[in-house]
Predict the structure of Lipase.
Amino acid sequence: MAGVGKAIGLGAAAAAAAGAAAAGVAADRAAAERRRLNALDPVAGFAHVADEELKVIATDGLNLHVEIDSPRDLDPELPTIVLSHGFCLSLRSWVLQRRAFVEAGYRVVLWDQRSHGESEISDLEHCSIEQLGHDLRAVIDATCPQGPIALVGHSMGGMTTMALARHHPDLVRDRVMAVAFISTAAGGQGLTDLGMGPLVGRAIGQVGPRLLSRLAPHQRWLAPVRRFGRNVEGSIVDRFSYDSPVSEGLIRFTSDLILATRFEVMAAFIPAIQSHDELDTLATLVDKEVLVVNGEGDLLTPPAHSEKIVERLPGSEHVVVRDAGHLIMLEHPEVVTGQILSLLHRAEVDAAAAVSVVDKPRVRRVLVDIAKGRRVKKARSGQGASDSRPRTRATS
């Protein structure tokens, strides 16, 4: 019997090794395919030098890293666009939008949320969505104390916008011209399911923070492991971030953004995200021009989360993008940028014509990024991918 048990154990180990090897081979093939798409990457790359950098002091004394870009001929009548990034990301995730907004004539303010990017690490007590709302107020007060503003938030950044609206409704009422929610939710329920159902979400909520806290002291030792398993890591990032073909360069950029976040930070914010509930707060925005954008294939914040936001905002516009995942602003940058610029144009036109948002109907559209599809086809055939014009088709 002992011999049989040993044989079974060896068989299981061999099966596990074979499975791991097969996964590695599949990841290698996927990485090779993505490398063929590196022609999709922006000509200027993913690095960016800000026009201005500064530190903003939060209400608890924490230093927040802030960057500002401004066009040469700034129209003071145009709103300042304030960009808030998502969980486990940084302001670098907005690199493609910030360039386009400045080119369109807008002043842009970006910031690293506490414990992310180059901002200081927060104590556990202040790792909350409510505190992020206060942080956003501090950033606005320091960088654009006067004039109209437009708030754009991705994922946790959208939650930050909602917290700002609840705690600082006067600011929103008096100065916010438009709001864009990108891949976000007004309630935290289901946000840790990873597209695998509530059982996975509960497990992550219960076990994830404890596991990440235990791994935190050993995070620095993971760098060699990351290099060894880069292709497997890339496949995981690709699966949960995107829903269309993307380049290996973009996957590397995304992986570095996510894994630059400390494990203890991940552990601290998971409960804050799960307890997030700002559905009632959305009433503060009923008279604002609101855009809600998400990817049809988003596993973290699927369209159902966005629809709950739209239900509370009668005059809002809901745009669902086909073949798009959670990091839609990097996957379909021209589409996201174009939708936000259209939002600002609508806000300016309606304000000039004294059109009330509450009198406007909800609009829901499904878009297909035709231009990207063509670029992917060219890259795969070895013809390059120079056509970057934002062409989309509305399917409904």
